[in-house]
Amino acid sequence: MAEYIISFAIFGLTAFIMAGIGISQLKSSKPVGFYTGVKPPEAKQLRDVKAWNRKHGIMWVVYGGAIMGCGLVNVIAGALERGNVLLMIPELAVIIGGVFVMMRYHARLERLYRL
């Protein structure tokens, strides 16, 4: 059971970081970026900076929530003594698949808000 609690702590820390990114983007008055190392667009290049930041922030908060959900499932499976390697498949699908969903959503936001 201890390994599931440690796992939950790791999932929780990761989720906290992702949600923190989202909250900082929600509060930002300057346009935010998505990809690491890529300069965010300038305010004059966007139709609505506030909506751009809000949608990116919500995206990161939801991703953090999905990661936290994986951690909860992991702990529940451990408590029920049902934890096994097959549990990793949906967790990896959420974590890795979530990145691809976020990339696609960012591309959609680019089409909607870029001038």
Short description:
The protein is mainly α. It contains three helices and no strands. The protein is elongated, with a radius of gyration of 17 Å.
Word description of this protein:
By secondary structure, this protein is mostly helical. The protein is built from three helices and no strands. The chain has helices at residues 2-27, 49-79, 88-113. It starts with a helix and ends with a helix. The model has no long low-confidence stretch (mean pLDDT 89).
Q: N-to-C terminal Cα separation, in Å?
A: 53 Å
Fraction in helix: over 70%
Q: Report the structural category.
A: mainly alpha
Number of helices: 3
Order of helices and strands: HHH
Largest sheet: none
| Overall pLDDT | 89
Low-confidence stretches: none
How much beta, percentage-wise?
under 5%
Oligomer: single chain
> What would you report as the Rg, rounded to the nearest angstrom?
17 Å
Total beta-strand segments: 0
Principal-axis shape: elongated
